[in-house]
Design brief:
8% helix; 166 residues; mainly beta; Rieske Iron-sulfur Protein
Length: 166
């Protein structure tokens, strides 16, 4: 298996092609609302998890807090669950190192590199991503695993609960 890059200026996967590699390994499967064990995250701090009703999410821990966000980078649709969590708690794209705040899904910095790091281009991508942030999903750590929480639905009387009124 190819080595995953942990150093920001290294290559992600060794390939003879000038294009990003297409990998066919499947994401982990959620078991109900249980997404993934914290110990399964590895040194990158994030994995892809397929859910029954929210599709594939990037799930991990950043800054000591669990997160689950939509999985596609807003730049060229790379799978963020194959990226890494940076020391400052951002989710970094595995292709061109765009970074996201996992609490609200905002792109913190645009793509990097010789072509995609061209400052006007990178700022343009960030401006688009500001209108299309990643979707964060509420999660918690329980029993050593990251669990997806049911969304809070406001009731008619103004109280907020996790259940839908019948």
């Amino acid at each position: 298996m190819a080595e995953i890059r942990m150093e920001p200026h290294g290559r992600g996967v060794e390939t003879d092609s000038p294009f990003p590699p297409v990998t066919h390994d499947g994401p982990r499967e959620a078991r109900g609302n249980r997404l993934v064990g914290v110990e399964e995250l590895g040194e990158r701090g994030v994995v892809e998890v397929r859910t029954a009703d929210r599709g594939v999410l990037a799930v991990g821990v950043a800054g000591g807090r669990p997160f689950a966000v939509s999985n596609l980078c807003r730049h060229q649709l790379a799978k963020l669950g194959r990226g890494r969590v940076t020391p400052d708690g951002c989710l970094e794209c595995p292709w061109h190192r765009a970074r996201y705040d996992v609490t609200d899904g905002a792109m913190v910095s645009g793509p990097k590199g010789r072509i995609f790091g061209f400052t006007p281009y990178s700022h343009g991508i960030k401006a688009i991503a500001d209108r299309l942030p990643l979707t964060p999903h509420p999660v918690e750590v329980r029993d050593g695993a990251i669990w997806l929480l049911d969304p809070v639905v406001p009731r008619r009387d103004g109280d907020a609960t996790g259940a839908v009124d019948a």
